[in-house]
Amino acid sequence: MTLEDWLSTPENYVFLVIAIPMVVAGWRVVTSQNVVHAVLYLVATLAASAGLFLLLGAEFVAWTVVLVYIGAVVVLFLFGIMITRAPIGVDVSLSHPPRVRVAAAVVSFALFVLVGGAMLDAFSGAAAFDVVPTRTVDIGESIFARFVVPFEVVSVVLLAALIGGIVLARRDPEEPT
Amino acid sequence: MIITQFLIVGAALFSLGVYGVLTRRNAVLVLLSVELMLAAVNINLVAFDRFVADQLAGGQIFALFVITVAAAEVGIGLAIVLLIFRNRHSANVDELDLMKL
Which ipTM value was assigned to this complex? Predict the structure, then answer.
């Protein structure tokens, strides 16, 4: 598919409008010197990923991301920041010194070239696909028929995480702190 | 739409997450970068699901499972960070060197 073909599809402009701010916000998540700003940029990244899911016709996953990630996980992160009294405001020591950052940039860029190159190599010949929106009823039938055992296992994982979180974070009254 | 545009965005987001895990000192921000990597994986899963037009929507259901397990991981991870902060009065990963020779 040539670039002209790609640019002649209106959906791809929507994709660019969502994807470019997403990557920029992701970059700010890992470089911001303000903890709260980093969390808010993560909100922007996750909202953009929900937008990509809507573009792909995966409505149930998109709204689950909005509810679970933006609604719950981000609030949990903000609570974690407040409880651990992480320095709120500008602080240069939130990241490692520059020599570590350069090494990490080399490693992550090499990873991007490797993964992106492998994906391009494998799928650059693939044809364009039209999105057929997934109905939530299909997802429900699939979860409760074909994937019912993993679904139950995940519910046990959540229960274990709930109990584990309480046990780890509880302060025993008789224990000297 | 073609599949590679989603795969490239997913790879870029995943690499940013790896960069964040390697460079952040604050343990809460390391967890934040892990969330970035999981979001990248979700994009790949849903894109492949629509690419092959799976009748069972297996990719989307895997993405839902990833979201669930990520929520559990954040809960446990923040509890551990809280415990470390309570014992060491610091949430910086490079100050947790008790097991270093």
Answer: 0.91
